[in-house]
Amino acid sequence: MKRFIRDVIGWLILLAAVLTIYHFLSSPQETPDGEAYAYTSDGKVPTGLYPAVEDKTNELIQRAENRGITMFITDDFRSSADQDELYAQGRTSGGSIVTNARGGESYHNYGLAVDFALKNSQGEAIWDMNYDGNGNGKADWMEVVDLAKELGFEWGGDWPGFKDYPHLQMDFGLTISQLKEGYMPK
Ligand SMILES: [Zn+2]
């Protein structure tokens, strides 16, 4: 029995050591690629699109236009309150479910995501993923996705489970829980 207790204590000490090491390794000081990021110590929550994401979005629109594809952004920054309202859609309010993220749980809430749609030749907004307006045999939607990935965006259509086809985001190696803590890319 004494031996058993000694073993248990030994394992607990080992577990504590592992957890301590894990805590230091996982403390959000640097992104996985080594790029340091800033802590928004003033407690300010983002109120708009993060500048680097805005630049890449504008570049994406331009590159698509160069290929004869007109795309536009339907949604960019979303406050946590807006996100909660969207989450309610199809649950406690009308319409169909469009998101699984509550306020603070979407990259939109940190200005790190945009949603896009296409415009057809009549200038109407479309979400048709097979539309080939520039007639090059490739779906315009997927051409935009490929261009976006080249620019460093992650596509919601690649997610396992709930697929968000209009959604593009840049996480800079930051998880939602790190963003919730107040970390933002530098
Ligand atoms: Zn989105």
TrEMBL record:
Keywords: Membrane, Transmembrane, Transmembrane helix
Keyword Transmembrane helix set for record: yes
Every Peptidase M15C domain range: 101-170
Spans through the membrane: 7-25
Pfam families: Peptidase_M15_4
InterPro entries: DD-CPase-like, Peptidase_M15C, Zn_M74/Hedgehog-like
CDD domains listed in its UniProt record: L-Ala-D-Glu_peptidase_like
Protein name: M15 family metallopeptidase
Upper classification of the organism: Bacteria, Bacillati, Bacillota, Bacilli, Bacillales
